[in-house]
Each structure stands twice: as C-alpha cells, then as structure tokens.
Design goal:
11 helices; 373 residues; five-stranded mixed β-sheet; eight-stranded parallel β-sheet; alpha/beta; elongated
C-alpha cells in the first residue's frame, strides 16, 4: 500500500514517550533483569525501527518480534542486540534465522527434531539460539509437560548446531484484578522449572501486564510490549504503577466545510439526516486508513470542540458536524490532545468494542508515521 504523504492525515509518534516508558519500567526492575522491547506488528503500529531506537535509548537490551521477517528488518536496520521471535517459524527457515543471529521459539518435539536435522546439514559454524515455549494455560503454542521439555533440552544439548538459550510462558489474565488463573499458570510454570536439569540464560514470563502488576513475574527478562507505547494493558481496569506516556497522535485537517440545509442526507445509505441547518466538515481519513465504519457517532476534536462523526465513515473520508464554520485546513485530532481536550486511544477502543492494541495495529500503512521527540 502506498503511503499517502500528500494529504494532512498523519500518525505522529512521540519517540521520547517510548523512551520514557521503557526507562520508567527499567528503573523498577532488578539490575540483573533484562528488558526486551516488543516491536512486533510494526511496533504495534508505531513503526518498528523507530520504536526500537527509542527503546534502546530508554535502556532496552533486546527485542521481541512475532515473525522472522520482522526480526530480519531489525538486523537490516543495524540493530545488534538479541532478537527473539516469539511465534513459531517453519523449520525450513532455521538456517536463515541462524545466519542473522536470531533466537527462535520452539513448542513441539516434531518441529525441534526437524529443525535440528536441517541444521546438522548447515555449513554455518554458529549455533541457533532456542527458547522453549511452555503452554501453562494460554492454549496457543508450547510444550505441556516437563517430560517434553526435558526431552527437548537433551536433544538441543546433543546438537552441535544449536543452544538452549531460554524458556518462557505467557500469562493470559495478567491484566485482570482477579488473579487465580494467573496464579495457576505461575504454579504450572514453577513446576516445569523445578524439573529442569539446569537453567538457561533466560527464564521469562513477564509481558507488560505481568511486569506492571505482578512484580515482574518469574525470571530475568521482561517482554515489554503495549505499555512501552503508553497504553495501559488492562484498558481502564487497573491503575498502572507509574504514568504511561501515550506515544501516538492521529491528526488530519478539514478539506471542505459547507452549510447544509435541514433534512439533507449525509453519507452512504443516508444514515444521518440533518435535523436543521448545519455546518458539515469533511476529513480525509476512512476505513482504508483503519478508521472503521463503527466510528460513526464518535467525536473528533476541532479547536477543542467535540464534533460528532455524522453519516457512515467512507473508505477515504468522513464527515463531522461542526458548531460553526471553520477555515479549510483547520487541524482535526482523532487521537491525542487538541486545545486542552483529549481523545485517548482507549476511547476509540471503547467505541469499537475492542482493545487499544487493535486500534493501534489497525491504522493502515497508508497513513504516514511522522516521528517527533
């Protein structure tokens, strides 16, 4: 998708906010605990490379991504820190991961055996770093028993082309006040750890929520994700132990303003009819940019005024009801602050009936990311 640079719709990313969020978490952790910045999904929509730079400035010592492609992007951008791929990659790409000095996740014996067999034929002399994923209750990927984990360790130890670097799990309810299931998962993971023949370099359980509300969980590495971008992992359910600084603004501008008579339809389907003479402004952003049709009825900020989205959100444009005439080019804020008022990304998520993770990731590649301190 081409980036639409020649229109006023922009996602402004405040890299200093990312740096500060990382530094604040880093300062809470024991000195020996490492912090890996999670920059998967293009840095949760913020831009992976720029987010990674800001995270390193804040004290991050490594990165987590979801795919091999994302990991290679960091290497090609010049990052030399450890990079862990959290999702499973096809064993056929193991040598490619090895060539870029990446750490990979393995969650089944079958995949591990194929990976080690393929690596035994490699001409590369370095070793593939492997993290074993334990499924303690997420039901997604990972080994389920200590017997499987220990068998996997034995296979890795016998291999000349791999090394066991880490073991981890992922908590599914760390962002909730009720923590009985979190405790159940923790107990299961502790049981696995107690059966290990030895500990690898990294033992980790902490996503953002675990780090914020469960004393960083178990181990010596934190996977710092959504909180790094200034978003509370729980939405509004739990208060963060320090002020998270939002890193993303979404802004545009009025491209047309007109007075519309009473009883006129606005937008596709005539879902809104003017009850009286109204000023209608058009803003160049739509569902192709990630501003979805369910945003109809929500509000945007124009000079501190909350202006309702009227009519259906179009693919490339939307219409808002203005309290009065404004000049074409007047700034419109979709996420962020405007003349003393603010729309938080959580407000957008509430309108959509979803989570702010999804909102940030949904802002499409057509919207340019502008990086500011």
């Amino acid at each position: 998708m081409v980036v639409a640079n020649y229109r006023p719709t922009k996602a402004i990313i405040h890299t200093k906010a990312i740096e500060e969020n990382v530094r604040n978490e880093r300062n809470r952790l024991p000195q020996e605990t490492e912090l890996f910045a999670v920059v998967k999904a293009n840095g949760y929509g913020h831009g992976a490379v720029e987010a990674a730079k800001a995270a390193v400035a804040g004290g991050a010592t490594g990165f987590c991504v979801a795919t091999l492609d994302e990991a290679i992007e960091l290497r090609e951008a010049g990052f030399i820190e450890p990079v862990l791929i959290l999702s499973i990659i096809d064993p056929s790409y193991s040598e490619l991961a090895l060539s870029h000095d990446l750490s990979v996740t393995v969650g089944t014996m079958e995949a591990l055996k194929i990976t080690l067999e393929l690596l035994s034929q490699s001409t590369l002399t370095n070793k593939l770093k492997i993290h074993l994923k334990v499924d303690t209750g997420m039901g997604r990927i990972g080994f389920r028993s200590s017997e499987e984990v220990n068998e996997a360790i034995q296979l890795i130890d016998r291999s000349k082309s791999s090394q066991w670097e880490g073991i981890f799990t992922h908590f599914s309810t760390a962002d909730q006040a009720e923590d009985s299931y979190w405790q159940q998962q923790e107990t299961r993971f502790i049981g696995i750890l107690e059966e290990l023949p030895y500990k690898p370099r990294f033992v980790h359980t902490s996503n953002s929520a675990t780090a914020l509300w469960h004393e960083a969980g178990i181990g010596n590495l934190v996977r710092y994700g959504v909180a790094m971008y200034g978003m509370n992992p729980s939405g509004n359910a739990l208060e963060a132990p320090y002020q998270l600084q939002p890193a993303l603004e979404l802004v545009s501008a009025l491209i047309q303003v007109k007075q519309v008579p009473k009883a006129e339809g606005i937008g596709y389907g005539k879902t809104y009819v003017t009850p009286e003479v109204e000023w209608i402004g058009t803003v160049p952003i739509g569902y192709a940019d990630g501003w979805l049709r369910k945003m109809q009825g929500f509000h945007l900020l124009v000079e501190g005024e909350r202006c309702e989205i009227v009519g259906r959100v179009c693919m490339d444009q939307l219409m808002i009801r203005l309290p009065r005439a404004y000049p074409v080019g007047t700034k419109v804020t979709l996420i962020g602050q405007n003349t003393g008022q603010e729309i938080h990304i959580q407000d957008v998520a509430n309108q959509l009936g979803t989570i702010h993770y999804e909102v940030a990731c949904t802002i499409s590649a057509r919207v340019p990311r502008i990086y500011e301190i």
